[in-house]
Write a structure and sequence with these properties.
Blueprint lengths: L54 H8 L5 E5 L2 E5 L6 E3 L2 H9 L6 E4 L21 H5 L5 E4 L6 H7 L4 E3 L6 H15 L2 H21 L8 E5 L12 H8 L3 E2 L15 H7 L3 E4 L8 H5 L8 H4 L3 E3 L2 H5 L5 H14 L2
Parallel strand pairs: 3-4, 3-5, 5-6, 7-8, 7-9, 9-10
Antiparallel strand pairs: 1-2
Helix pairs in contact: 1-5, 1-6, 5-6, 6-12
Length: about 325
């Protein structure tokens, strides 16, 4: 079985990217534009497949004992004792923490953490975090994906452990974050199980993807300004697992999230269009009404798929749902 080739992760370039990853109305992005895209490890693997990350090995060596050393973007963080009051300032981290069974350790989450429904949503902001506001919840661990307002250093100055997990560029990076959160919260076995289940589900779905003589092409829309995601992102990796080719790859500006022109899209004539900009009020009808877009193959064939912007922009366990939607849409495409 082919596995996802691992990708290196250079120093992230900070750009505005999304609330869940993308909300055009937000002043800041979570994460640091999800790292500058890098080349894949195995040149002969033209279509990445889901696979074994370092999660299993990490779980075996880290254990659930405390103190635990956890690897995050802000370095190696030592968690002295099992946290009982976790604050999450990242919607994806919130989903991960609950998925590994640490939800009862969470006392507060940011204003965009709308899943799961029982998460204790507050008015805390992951985009403009305030150290004083966070400390009112007396946390013994804070998890975030974007170090805005120098919040990491601020929390460290008051001796609050903080883990920064930027938006993943690959599924392997997502698996690794889940594994590290398992170590940080005392849920190592549960985290390993989540990763194993994700990998198995993704493998199964990838195997279900319709095989075609010529792969279908697609355009993934993040906002009405035609920002998109290329194949050098976890979003693009999901589409590749379904056997699709990204028309925006030629416009990649090094971040994985370029703004493309209408001319490029019309010339490339994508077979499918996926919309993840519900917040901007964009639906299939709005796309079809754009000048010249009525001649695009995806529009003529009715292959415009409206996506849940939260599910498609968060790199946690629900990427499985994202892939399931894409695989079904691809199978149904004309």
């Amino acid at each position: 079985m082919r596995r996802i080739p691992r990708m290196s992760s250079p120093t992230p370039t900070r750009r505005p990217v999304a609330a869940s990853v993308w909300r055009p109305t937000c002043a800041l992005a979570i994460a640091a534009t999800l790292a500058v895209a890098a080349g894949c490890g195995d040149d002969d693997e033209s279509v990445p497949q889901s696979g074994q990350s370092d999660a299993g090995a990490a779980a075996e060596t880290t254990g659930a004992a405390f103190p635990a050393d956890v690897e995050a973007a802000n370095g190696t963080v030592t968690i002295e004792t099992e946290p009982e009051r976790i604050v999450s300032l990242s919607p994806t981290a919130t989903e991960m923490v609950y998925a590994i069974g640490a939800g009862d350790q969470v006392v507060a989450v940011d204003d965009f953490s709308n899943y799961p429904e029982d998460a204790p949503v507050t008015d805390l902001s992951g985009f403009e975090p305030n150290v004083e506001a966070v400390t009112t919840y007396d946390p013994d661990l804070v998890v975030l994906s974007f170090d805005a307002n120098d919040v990491v250093a601020g929390l460290e100055r008051v001796d609050i452990p903080v883990l920064e997990f930027p938006a993943a560029m690959t599924l392997d990076e997502s698996y690794d974050q889940i594994t590290q959160l398992g170590a940080a919260t005392g849920n190592v076995d549960e985290a390993a199980e989540v990763v194993d289940d994700m990998q198995a589900d993704i493998d199964d779905l990838a195997a279900q993807a319709a095989e075609r003589d010529e792969p279908l092409t697609y355009y993934h829309e993040l906002d009405d300004q035609l920002h998109t995601a290329t194949s050098q992102t976890f979003i693009g990796q999901v589409y590749a697992l379904a056997g699709l080719e990204n028309v925006a790859d030629a416009a990649d500006d090094g971040t994985g999230y370029p703004q493309v022109s209408a001319e490029l899209l019309l010339d490339s004539d994508p077979d499918m269009i996926f919309l993840a900009d519900e917040a901007a009020g964009i639906d299939a009808g709005a796309v079809a009404a754009r000048p010249g877009w009525d001649q695009v193959t995806a529009v003529r064939n009715g292959d415009i798929i409206e996506l849940d912007p939260d599910i498609t922009s968060r790199w946690g366990p629900r990427v499985v749902e994202f892939l399931r939607t894409v695989v079904k849409a691809t199978s149904d495409a004309g």
